Amino acid sequence: MMISDDQGETWREWRQTNIPGSSPFHEGCAAQLQDGTILLLQWAARGPEPVGHWTAKLWESRDNWETVHGPFEAKMLL
Questions:
Q1: CA distances in angstroms from 70 to 6, 9, 53, listed in the order given
Q2: Percent of all residues in the chain with a pLDDT value above 70, rounded to a whole number
Q3: Taking the CB of the first residue and of the last residue of the chain, which one, N or C, has fewer CB atoms within 10 A?
Q4: What is each CA distance from 46 to 30, 40, 54, 61, in whole angstroms?
């Protein structure tokens, strides 16, 4: 995975070996919130449940991927 710390001016390879629940595979499903929190949603969701919810794994970092928390279960109604 490639990351940029300067709004896409430069890119570097990112490798993190201590991600809980193993490294997530994703395709365009990472977001950085205004407070700096980075969220990464697993690329494949399971579902739907009878009420319409889909579930996927979600990882979170509040320190630019120095530490990563998760995976948590994320529920979505699509």
A1: 26, 29, 20
A2: 79
A3: C
A4: 18, 16, 5, 23
